[in-house]
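Researcher: Checking consistency across runs. Here is F-box/LRR-repeat protein 2-like again:
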Amino acid sequence: MSSVCVNESLTDDELRWVLSRLDSEKDKEVFGLVCKRWLNLQSTDRKKLAARAGPHMLRRLASRFTQIVELDLSQSISRSFYPGVTDSDLAVISDGFKCLRVLNLHNCKGITDTGLASIGRCLSLLQFLDVSYCRKLSDKGLSAVAEGCHDLRALHLAGCRFITDESLKSLSERCRELEALGLQGCANITDSGLADLVKGCRKIKSLDINKCSNVGDAGVSSVAKACASSLKTLKLLDCYKVGNESILSLAQSCKNLETLIIGGCRDISDESIMLLAESCKDSLKNLRMDWCLNISDSSLSCILKKCKNLEALDIGCCEEITDVAFRDLGSDDVLGLKVLKVSNCTKITVTGIRPTHLDAPCTNHE
C-alpha cells in the first residue's frame, strides 16, 4: 500500500483547523519548521507583527507576511535608539504592507514629513496611526496622511510640537470617520483649530488636548456641541484658559461623558461642576480635578451623591475641600470608587473618609 502524504490529503482550511488545535504559538512555529507549506500557511494567516528592522529585513518580512494588518515599530523611551525607524523604512512599509490598518510609530524620532507622505500615498486602508513624540513632523506630513487615509479612525500626535491648526483643518476635510485624536503638548493648537476640526469630524469619542495651553472655552464648547452624542473622553490637563463655560457646555451637551480630566484648570468652580455631576451622573467614571482651587465641599459632595458609577477621583491639592464633603453622605450613598487621590488636601483626614461608604477599598489614598 502506497504511503499517503498529509499535505496531499488536507486542504488549506483543514490544515488551519489542525494548527488551531495547538495551544501555544511556540508549538505552531515548530510545526512551521517541519514543512514549507505549513510555514507558508502560518505566514499568510498572520495579522500582527512587531519588529525592529532595517529596509532589507522589512522587505523580507513583507514578502513573507502578506496579510499583516497591524505593524508595531514603536520604541520605548528608556531603550530607544537614534535614528531607529527612518523615512526609507516607511517607504518599504508603505510599498510592502498594503493591507495595514494599524501602524504604531510611537517615539520613532528619525522619521520626517517625507516618510508620512509615503504612508499617505500607499496605505489607503489605514485606520490607526501613532506618531507620538516623532518631533520632526509638521503639518505637511499630516496633511499628506489625511489626503490618502480617508478611513482614519485614531490618530496620536502627542509631543509633535510643530503641529498647528492647519493639520486639524486637513483632518476635518478628509477624515470624517475620526474617533480618537491625541494632541497632548501640541501647544500651537488653538480654539480656531478645534472649531475647524469638528466641522467635519463629528464622531469623536476621545480627545486629548492635555497641555495645549492655547485652548480655551471657545474651543472646548465647539467640540462639546458638535460631538455631543459621541464624546466619552476629554482630557484638558493644564489648559489654564479653560473655565466654567467649558464645563457648562459639556454638561448641557455631552450626556455620555465617561472620563474628564481638568487638573490644573484653576478657574473652574462649584456651580459648573455640580451641573456636570447632575448631567453625567449615569455615565461619569473617571474624574481628575487636582489643582482646581475653587472646588469646595458642596461640589464634591454633589459628585459623590450623584455619580454612582464613578470609579476614579483625583482631588489632589484642592485646598478648600474638607471632611464635610464625605460626612454629608447618607447611609444609602455607597461609593464604587476604586481609586481616590487626596494628596495635599490638608483639611481631609483619614477618619473623615468613612470606609462604610466605599464599595471597594481606595487603592491610592495619599
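Researcher: Does this match what you'd expect to see?
Model: One thing to look at in this run: The mean pLDDT is 89.
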